[in-house]
Amino acid sequence: MRSRELTSLILILTVTGLALWINWTPNENFFGRDVRIRLGLDLQGGIQVLLRAAESDFTRDELDTARGVIERRVNALGVGETVVQLAGSDRIIVELPGVDNPEQAVDTLRGTGRLEFIDSLGQYIPDGMLVRTSSSPNPTLTEADGITNTEQLGPIFQSITDGADLDTGAVQPAFSQGGVTGSRPAVSFAFRGDSARNLATFTARSVGQPMCIVLDNRVVSCPQINAALTDGSGIIEVNSEIDRDNILNQLKYGALPVPLVIETSRSVTATLGQESVEASVIAGIVGLTVVALFMIIFYRLPGILATLALLIYTLISFAIYRFIPITLTLPGIAGFILSIGLAVDANVLIFARLREEYRRGRDIRNALERGFKESWPAIRDSSVSTLITSIVLFLFGSSFGVSIIQGFALTLGLGVLVSLFTALVITRTFLRLAAPLFSDERSWLFGVERRSAPTAA
Length: 457
What we know:
Elements: H1 3-24, E1 29-30, E2 33-34, E3 38-39, H2 41-44, E4 46-53, H3 60-76, E5 83-87, E6 91-97, H4 102-110, E7 115-119, E8 132-133, E9 156-159, E10 172-175, E11 185-190, H5 193-205, E12 212-215, E13 218-221, E14 233-237, H6 241-252, E15 260-268, H7 270-299, H8 301-323, E16 327-328, H9 330-359, H10 364-400, H11 403-434
Parallel strand pairs: 3-16, 8-9
Antiparallel strand pairs: 1-2, 4-6, 4-15, 5-6, 7-9, 7-12, 10-11, 11-14, 12-13
C-alpha cells in the first residue's frame, strides 16, 4: 500500500469514526456541543405568526432591527430551531417549533417593549388598562380593545421616563421582599441619563402617592411610592412567573423601533410531521437500496465500493446536519435524498470512463487514473451549477420569506460538497486499494471485456 492510499484511508476512517460518534453518541453531546436532531415546524409542530408593521412611516433598516429584536425575544423563550425573517416590505414571519406555551410566545412577540413610568395624577389606574402617554399619545388599537379612536382612552399622562433610556443589562428576574402580599415574582430595572434623574426627582416629591408603570401603553401596576428611587432603579412586581418572563423578555432584548400587530397566527400539529418523517425515512431507505442494487448489478465490484462510499456519505451528511446544526424540514429531507442521486451520478461518470479506458487496452491502474482525470470536468461543472442553484434558492428564501425553500437549498448544497469528497477521495481510495486484485482474467469484476490491443498510456 502506497503512502498516498494509506494517508487517504486514515482520513476516511477518521472522518467516518467522527460521523459515527456524532450520530450515535448516547447523550447527544459531542465535546460539549448539543448534537440533537433538530426538526422544523412542519415536522415537529408549533406555531407560525405573521407580524405586520402597524404604521407606514418606517425604513427597511428599522424593520430589520425589529426582526433582530423579535429573534432575541423568541430565543430567550428557550424554543429551538426558530425562524424569524422578513417577508415582503412590511411583514415578519416567525416560526416557533414545539412551543409549550403558545399564548406567552404570542404575547412576547406582540409587545413593542416600551417601558414608561407616568404621573397618574394621584390615581390608581387598574392593571391592564390602555392609556395615552406624552411619549406615546396614539397607541395601536386592536379589536380586543373595543374602541376605534385613541381619543376615547382619556387624557394624556405625563411620562416620567423614556424607554430609550432603559438599561437592558440591568433587566433581570427577581422577587419582591415580602410585605403585605408576601414575596412575588418581579423584574428589576434601571434607567440612565435624564430618565434616571427625572425618576429620582419625581419619587422624592411624591412619597405616599401612586406612580403607574406602563408597558406598551398598558398599565402593569400602580405601586405606591414608599421612598425616592435616587439611582433610577427598582423592581416591577407581577402576579405570576409567566407574566414576569413575558415582561422580562420584552424589556431585556430591546424595544421594537416599529410597532407590530399580529396579522395571522396558526398552529401546526405534530401528527402530520410524524407521518412525514416516517414516509421520508422509508423513501430514503428505498432510494438507497434501489441505487445500491443498480450500482452493484451494473458495475460489479466498483458498484460495491461505491455503495460503501454512499453509506459513508450518508453518515457524514447527517453528522454535519447535527453538528452545525441544521434544522431538518420536509423540503430539507427532500434536498438530502436528491443529493444522494447527485453523489451516485459522480460515481457513474467515473466508472463509465474507467470502463472505456479499460476497453481501449490500458491496465487497470492507468484506466482508473485516466477515468478520474477525464470525468473530473463533467463532475466539477455539474456540481458548480447545482451549487449556484442552491445559493440562489437559499438567498431567494432569505430575501422573500420563503423559508420552505431554504431547507431544501441548504441540504442540497451541502450534499453536493460532501458528494465531491465521497467521489474524489473515498471512492478513488477504495478503487486504488482494490486495483492489485484486478487482472484480465478477472475483468468480469468490471462487467466488461477488452476490445482492442493495449495502447500506450
